[in-house]
Specification:
heterodimer; A: mainly beta; seven-stranded mixed β-sheet; four-stranded antiparallel β-sheet; 48% strand; B: mainly beta; 10 strands; globular
Chain lengths: 120, 108
């Protein structure tokens, strides 16, 4: 059974940093691209970033490019999202998600999400 | 960036009725790389359809997807009580892999 468990969310001040983690199990982690999707309170879904199975390619939404960094440790079956220079508009539930192949595409499994609140 | 527009914003229907949800793209979605998701309050989204018309594992056959190019449709043939939720489309043909704003299907 595929399981994705996010951690690392919390309250951070504007301009601060936070690192999210996602522990994956139930599948061969290195064979699949991984994705972060966020959802602001009461709003829709926003794709944030994708990393290929090998970690060799990464993609970002314009809204986070240059501030967020996606990475993965295939030896630990863990996905990360380093978030710097956080803004109020980054407040959201962040979902860790799995793609159906090593390149990206859509999401076939979702974690339950971790809430990030950016506020002074 | 491909912008997705979903209509209607809210669809009020009764159980047993047919639901037709639209997703329109600002430019052609390559290779019909279009997915649909369902989200219920307090839950993570769930994949329903990928490749515009392929049902995901475990999805009932009352859900069907169609379309190509810039116009896509999600149809729920007969609404069950558990189908009342918000539905999102997403294109994954071109980065950034954008989502639509969602259609809420609520009980009339």
């Amino acid at each position: 059974e595929v399981q994705l468990v996010e951690s690392g969310g919390g309250l951070v001040q504007p301009g601060g940093s936070l690192r999210l983690s996602c522990a994956a199990s139930g599948f061969t982690f290195s064979s699949f691209a991984m994705i972060w999707v966020r959802q602001a309170p009461g709003k829709g879904l926003e794709w944030v970033s994708t990393i290929t199975g090998s970690g060799g390619s990464t993609y970002y939404a314009d809204s986070v490019k240059g501030r967020f960094t996606i990475s993965r440790d295939n030896s630990k079956n863990t996905l990360y999202l380093q978030m710097n220079s956080l803004r109020a508009e980054d407040t959201a539930v962040y979902y860790c998600a799995k793609a159906p192949n090593r390149y990206g595409d859509y999401v076939d499994y979702w974690g339950q999400g971790t809430l990030v609140t950016v506020s002074s | 960036e491909i912008v997705l527009t979903q209509s209607p914003g809210t669809l009020s229907l009764s159980p047993g009725e047919r639901a037709t949800l639209s997703c329109r793209a600002s430019q052609r979605v390559s290779s019909s790389y279009l997915a649909w998701y369902q989200q219920k309050p307090g839950q993570a989204p769930r994949l329903l359809i990928y490749g515009a018309s392929s049902r995901a594992t475990g999805i009932p056959d009352r859900f069907s997807g169609s379309g190509s190019g810039t116009d896509f449709i999600l149809t729920i043939s007969r609404l069950e009580p558990e189908d009342f939720a918000v539905y999102y489309c997403q294109q994954y043909g071109n980065s950034p892999f954008t989502f639509g704003p969602g259609t809420k299907v609520d009980i009339k």
